[in-house]
Design a protein that fits this description.
Layout lengths: L17 H13 L5 H6 L13 H6 L7 H4 L2 H9 L9 E3 L8 E4 L3 E4 L6 E3 L2 H13 L4 H10 L1 H4 L2 H19 L10 H21 L1
Antiparallel strand pairs: 1-4, 2-3
Length: about 210
C-alpha cells in the first residue's frame, strides 16, 4: 500500500501517548494470522530474524569490556539463543525492523508503520520484543518494559519464544557492536552498544524470573 502520511516520527519517551498507540497497533497485527495476500507477497522473503545470533561467538573469546554479570552467563545465553531458530516460524505479520524512524504519527491516521523492506511472517513476539530495547533507550525503565512484555498478547502468548528471541537479538547487537566501524556510519557501533545494553538488561530480568 502506498499512502501520503503527514506527521513526525513518534515520540517513544515515557511522557508520550505514542507508545500506547504503537502497542495497540502491534496487538492488532499479532492478534490473527496474516491474510493470504500478505503471505503471498512476502513468501519470497525469508525472515532474517531466524539467523540472529552472537553469544556463541562471544563465548569463544569473551570481550574484555563485557559486563561481568553477563560474562558469567555466556554459556546460558548461548544455549538460550540456540533455541531461537526452532521457534522462529509463525503465521503472523512481521515488520522486521521496527524503530521510531520506521513509523510516522500521521495527523489523521495516528501511528503507522512504514518501510516494510523486511516484511515477512513469523511468531507474534518479534516486532514487540524488537521494540522493547528502543523504549528503554527512550527513557522507560527495564522493569516497566519487562512487565509490558509479560502482559502484552504479542509476547505473553509464547514467553519461551520471546525470551529466546531477545537472547538472539541482544547477542547479535553485542557481536556487531564490537566489529570495526563501517565507513559512512561513524555512530553505528556506539548505537549498537547502547541498544545491546538495553536489551541485555531486559533479558536478564526475564531470565531471573
Amino acid at each position: 500500500m502506498i499512502a501520503h502520511l503527514d506527521g513526525p516520527h513518534p515520540d517513544l519517551s515515557p511522557d508520550s501517548a505514542d507508545p500506547g498507540q504503537i502497542w495497540a497497533l502491534l496487538d492488532k497485527l499479532a492478534s490473527s494470522p496474516a491474510p493470504p495476500p500478505y503471505t503471498t507477497a512476502v513468501a519470497g522473503t525469508p525472515s532474517g530474524a531466524a539467523r540472529l545470533h552472537g553469544w556463541a561467538e562471544l563465548l569463544t573469546a569473551p570481550p574484555g569490556d563485557l559486563d561481568p554479570g553477563i560474562r558469567d552467563r555466556l554459556h546460558e545465553l548461548a544455549e538460550l539463543e540456540a533455541t531461537w531458530p526452532g521457534l522462529a516460524h509463525g503465521d503472523r505479520i512481521v515488520h522486521g525492523d521496527l524503530r521510531a524512524d520506521n513509523m510516522v504519527r500521521d495527523h489523521h491516521r495516528g501511528v503507522t508503520f512504514v518501510d516494510w523492506a523486511h516484511a515477512t511472517t513469523g511468531p507474534a513476539c518479534i516486532d514487540a520484543a524488537s521494540l522493547a530495547p528502543q523504549l528503554i533507550l527512550a527513557g522507560h525503565t527495564p522493569q516497566k518494559i519487562a512487565r509490558l512484555l509479560d502482559e502484552h498478547p504479542a509476547t505473553a502468548t509464547d514467553p519461551r519464544a520471546t525470551t529466546a528471541f531477545l537472547a538472539a537479538l541482544t547477542g547479535h547487537w553485542h557481536r556487531n557492536a564490537r566489529k570495526p566501524a563501517p565507513s559512512g556510519a561513524p555512530g553505528l557501533r556506539a548505537y549498537q552498544h547502547r541498544v545491546a545494553t538495553a536489551g541485555t538488561a531486559l533479558l536478564t530480568l526475564r531470565m531471573n524470573n
